[in-house]
Amino acid sequence: MRKILLLWGLLCAVRAAAQPTFPLNGVADERDITYAFTHATVMRDGKTPLQDATLLVRKGRITAVGSQITIPADAVVMDCKGKYIYPSFIDLYADYGISGTQRSMGGFNWNAPPQLNSNQKGAFGWNQAIRTDVEAARMFNVDESRARSLREIGFGTVLTHHKDGIARGSGVLVTLADQKENLVILKEKASAHYSFNKGSSQQSYPGSMMGVISLLRQTYIDAAWYRNNPSAEGVNITLQTWNALQGLPQIFEAGDKWNAIRADRIGDEFGVQYIIKAGGNEYQRISDMRASKAAFILPLSYPATMDVDDPNDARFVSLADMKHWELAPTNPAAFEQAGIPFTFTTADLRDSRSFMTGLRKALEHGLSDAAAIDALTSVPAKLLGVYDQVGSIDPGKHANFIVTTGPVFQEGTQILQNWVQGIKYGVKEDAWLDIKGSYALNINSPKGNMTYTVDVKSGNAASVIGKDTLTARFSHDGRMVRLSFAPEKKARGQYRLSGVSNGTDWNGYGEDSAGNKLTWTAAIQTAAVAKSDSVKKKTAGRLGKVNYPFLPYGWTDKPVAQDMLIRNATVWTSDAQGKLENADVLVKNGKIAQVGKGLSDPTAKVIDGTGKHVTAGLIDEHSHIAASSINEGGQTVTSEVRIADNLNPDDINIYRQLSGGVTTSHILHGSANTIGGQTQLIKLRWGANDEDLKFAGAPGFIKFALGENVKRSSSSQGNPRFPDSRMGVEQVLTDAFQRAKRYESSLKQAAAAAQTAKKGTVVDPFRTVRRDLELDALVEIMNRQRFITCHSYVQSEINAAMKVGDRMGFTFNTFTHILEGYKVADKMKAHGAAASTFSDWWAYKMEVEHAIPYNATIMHKVGLNVAINSDDAEMARRLNQEAAKSVKYGGMSEVDALNMVTINPAKMLHVDDKVGSIRAGKDADLVIWSDHPLSIYAKAEQTVVDGVVYFDRQKDAEMRRQITMERNRLIQKMSGEKRAGGPVVPATPSYQLLYNCGEHFHSHGLLAIDLD
Amino acid sequence: MKQQYIHKALSLVVALMALSIGVKAQDNVYPAKAQTGKVYIKNATVHVGNGQVIPGATVAVENGKITGVGTGIATDGANVTIIDAAGKHLYPGLILSSSGMGLVETPTVRATTDIREIGDYNPSIRAIVAYNTDSKIINTVRSNGILLANIIPEGGTISGSSTVVQLDAWNWEDAAYHMDGGLHFRMPSLFSRPSRFGGFGRRGPGAEPEGDPVKRALEEIDQVKALLREAKAYAAKSSVAEPNLKLEAMRGLFDRSKKFYIHCDVVREILVAIDFAKEFGLDVVIVGGSESWQVADLLKLHKIPVIIDQMHELPTLSDDDIDQTYKIATQLQKAGVLFAINDSDSQHRGKNLPFNAGTAAAYGLTKEEALSAITLNAARILGISDRTGSIETGKDANIVISVGDILDMRTSIITHAFIQGRQIDLTDKHKQLNQRYMQKYGL
Known about the structure:
The complex is a heterodimer.
Chain A: H1 2-14, E1 34-43, E2 49-58, E3 61-66, E4 76-79, E5 84-87, E6 89-94, H2 136-139, H3 144-152, E7 155-160, E8 167-175, H4 181-184, E9 185-195, H5 209-226, H6 237-245, E10 250-253, H7 257-269, E11 275-277, H8 286-291, E12 295-299, E13 306-307, H9 311-314, H10 319-327, H11 331-338, E14 342-345, H12 354-364, H13 369-376, H14 378-384, E15 401-404, E16 415-420, E17 423-426, E18 437-445, E19 448-458, E20 461-465, E21 469-476, E22 480-485, E23 495-501, E24 505-511, E25 517-527, E26 564-572, E27 579-588, E28 591-596, E29 605-608, E30 613-616, E31 618-623, H15 652-658, E32 662-667, E33 675-678, E34 680-683, H16 690-693, E35 700-705, H17 726-757, H18 773-782, E36 786-792, H19 795-808, E37 814-817, H20 825-831, E38 834-837, H21 855-862, E39 866-868, H22 879-890, H23 894-899, H24 903-908, E40 926-929, E41 940-945, E42 948-952, H25 953-979, E43 985-986, E44 992-995, E45 1008-1011
Parallel strand pairs in A: 1-4, 1-5, 6-7, 9-10, 10-11, 11-12, 12-14, 13-43, 26-29, 26-30, 31-32, 35-36, 36-37, 37-38, 38-39, 44-45
Antiparallel strand pairs in A: 1-2, 2-3, 5-15, 7-8, 8-9, 15-16, 16-17, 18-19, 18-25, 19-20, 20-21, 21-22, 22-23, 23-24, 24-25, 26-27, 27-28, 30-40, 32-34, 33-35, 40-41, 41-42
Helix pairs in contact in A: 5-6, 10-25, 17-18, 17-19
Chain B: H1 12-22, E1 38-47, E2 53-62, E3 65-70, E4 80-84, E5 89-92, E6 94-99, H2 136-142, E7 146-151, E8 158-166, H3 172-175, E9 176-186, H4 213-236, H5 245-254, E10 259-264, H6 267-280, E11 284-288, H7 296-301, E12 306-308, H8 324-335, E13 339-341, H9 353-362, H10 367-372, H11 376-382, E14 399-402, E15 414-419, E16 422-423, H12 429-441
Parallel strand pairs in B: 1-4, 1-5, 6-7, 9-10, 10-11, 11-12, 12-13
Antiparallel strand pairs in B: 1-2, 2-3, 5-14, 7-8, 8-9, 14-15, 15-16
Helix pairs in contact in B: 4-5, 8-9
């Protein structure tokens, strides 16, 4: 039996499967042989062990499995006593056999020349990153060296696709057999793939996360519209193939917890449930993952242990990075506990051999064996709809299974063989037989026969017992055996024996020290007693907690609204009541209940406000925090992109700004183009997810921009993108709204036409008119459903923009920056625009040469609604002080100055019915200040949003101590792993990515990387 | 203020616009004539600059010098100007310890910037010769009480020499207050910056060459040391046949007549800076020092002062105390390190210096300590404390009067300023444009 096993192993490597259509070079070699694997523990679906079972395989398929199987007489029988058989693993996120690697995507580059159109030649769509025409099956080539490395870790089937682009076409399901491509493809078009990364496309659009999302949304819309064969579009292969792919499982590479939510949201809009390729940090928001109802493909790569022994290196490693290092292996367990379906991929592993290490680590961190095996077998098969073919050991399925020495995940278990489509691939066959034990060695030399006992301890350790116990040099690889030893202690010479192993029966040839030839045999006398399987399951030990957000100062217990009564404070109402001395503010159920003197409430927590000042929470009209991208500069008009699509709640600046009294921030698109993206108003609810950060009920806004940035004055390579002057900017505005008007009227016409054709039915004008997300937003502006905040500096451009608005019938709600607003304040007033400006920035670029710190005061005096904003993550912590500068420069009253960061921006943003002043019924967004709120010495002691205290200076002090302790614990833990001999990588500083709209030259700190 | 001046794309048209816009404004703001007669400022709350406050005091000024400070100073005599500062606060003129003012007018317009020279080692470069006294920035800065500034070159590893200027001058020679007082060394970064970023918007600060950047930086530092060794040998020569411009410019370092300003931030860099001071006996000043609080004791031990370049900065790490940058000054003060507070913010161009100090006062310093960091201690660090930095008899009459606390923007309204006894015109481009449009609207 053994002989057959080993010989056949050699044979299969050279035997090519016959394909009927292929000419044969030689003689036909069809074989119809059944293989019977007997006495095995068969893990049929991975979980249910069939003890002492038989598995029959014929012509690449499983024909029978069970304990009462009759073995056909002509079967090749393999005794698998003590062995385990599992269905082989399935990886849904491979790029096996597909060449061409993905390039990573950069953000908007102010200096680079744009590529405005697709470089793909042919009847394809307009965007090079939508590659639905790609068919992985056509690109696929068997790659035996990679196949082998995957087989060695237990995989038999992979879904592979071309990892390039935002839409990546179809994936192909293949086995890892070393056969002609025709035979290993199980499903030619098995899946459709998507990502947020435009890959090799150098086309400028999309240049941001929100641009990618918009492109996907528009493509869904276009593809649906294209089904009606609109003649104007002609043949569009990209949209055609997009439609053709929709029936397949849709797999989206998200790679991060927030991206997973973003992808799922796109799917929800278009009735698609993606399978999401995760990044490894999803445990940090597991309930959001569950809410997506998606299945996930999880990587098993974890952050490497950093060398933090040098405190100068450790200094720049953030607590969040260290915590993630510790908790990343809990990710699979978190999915299991949350009841979210998941599978694993080897995709992110640098070395596929670390797969099992990673998996065992996940098991140590709470993942169950049963869930792990499902995740590798039945779950991926079911997700692809191929469970009838692979994913378990059942009759009719492909004979894709592995034979192991024990339970597959157990430390020390070896994969012996990996059978793919009924073909055996040896992995570690020398471990098939346990050769440990005591052997009788007979040496037949010219001097006579000698006998020794050889005590074999392992494949490379043995001792020889004659007169003395002698240490021998020994090796046994399953086929060949080598042994050399001195005949007795202190003897000079050596026996050098070499032979062939037939398991535990060896014979061979050798020489003694004198050079005499000899022959020898050895056979096992007593096998070593196998140690009982008392492998103790390792556990992870003490771990830190997940906090929200996953940053220092995050909370573990969700803060809740509390009723509170602030007593005897100076209350700056930012309302008709003005400033009240010795006044009280009562907060109930997240709202301001009462403002006045001598208030009381039996249940509210009383806060002594003596000597303190209370203001409404500050509102920052212009901010770029808490977002993953800010500028979609790929085109001049990008009104389709939305900041809301890429909010990032993991921004420490939310907390830092709370500490400066900010409670509401308007997150704007950048200023890279004339018509930028839709903005998002957020409340600084520290620890909330992206959806809960949003200011509910606030009307939509959009960012426009004029001047130097949009004409790309800073580009070092010239600017081929229209506009290149303020003259062109004016035309861009005019043209965009002209197009929007035409669009709106054609929609109305289409609706009317449809209505007359078929009376009484609901009509969808988008059946005939292509829905255009870009123009939708502009139509909303004209219908006052969306408002503009416009980046602007010099008087000419401000005036010109307003004239376009007057002509086209829309208003510039807000001019932001507006540093020459004082020159055209009268015209702005006539137009109906508000102004949101900097207190004293100037001379950082050409168009701000006339900026003056009296600007806010003049505009205020002319009668404009004026706000002071930050556009700066640092300065937003001192927004009250920025407002105070108008007292210094312009002599503005203190109440008016404070209003510029409270009620004025609230009015500008059309949320003054909810926030911006201290008035009964409004949201309890409040700041308790230690001092006069316009003074540089004032500190926010507590900052309250919706009645929830999100910042408390006393609690902050306590958290600092905890952060220090937690940092120290993790540094010690990392150092411990290094001392224990674990691999380490150099400490990587934790950089902070900061976005702004291109106005910044000053430093944000050592680790800050300013991005546009 | 590191990257803003490297923008290369500039059209001549834009450059010409810069000139034409600025022609009118400020040209009628004249530098003041030398002081004649005596000036007495009465009834002021005098903040001396050394921690002392004298309420209801008089400051006497004659021939550009302070001739008396205190109560009970007689204010009579001929040719006397009396300023009643009742209810007001009197301070030494504020000092901006590190600034590119006069070298950079509009950072994005290359034609208006003269702050970087080609080459890594430029010890012979002198900032003062390019200092433009007609910059429109200057008047807006001094109208916030800043009367002196250290004008420094940027760029390269050894950038050149800085000069302290007074901000009321016809030309750079008039402006120079302490000529070529220090040489500026910008230490290569000793912590690894990312060489490559993937994904959205993740552009690193430029492509880095291969290899360990820290190791590369250390090699560069060795080159600077080698240069210093040669400069020291050169300085020891009794006579030089053919002067070497670069080595000549470094001569003053070794007799400590010239300071060695080392621009650096992280602990490793600061340790190297200390090493420079020890090995070459240099008069080292650290500029930047955002991590200096970590090794404040060592700085105290080696008597190395720090110019905190930017108070209004985000903390280094998300883990850091949210107010860490605001309290560096307090940490240095407690350790006994001599420090100055600067304002390098290129969005305001330095005029918020008093509020940077005010922030330090909000986060731990006393107001007078914070004031010292922008007056007397700044003067000490720059080597001009024998002439200015405090309201003391014998010093130059560099004086500012404010309606209230100068460190708090709520009350920091400057009514008078004197440079070397000359009462300067506090008009600036901002005020002129303000007036122009107040007029338009009839306000």
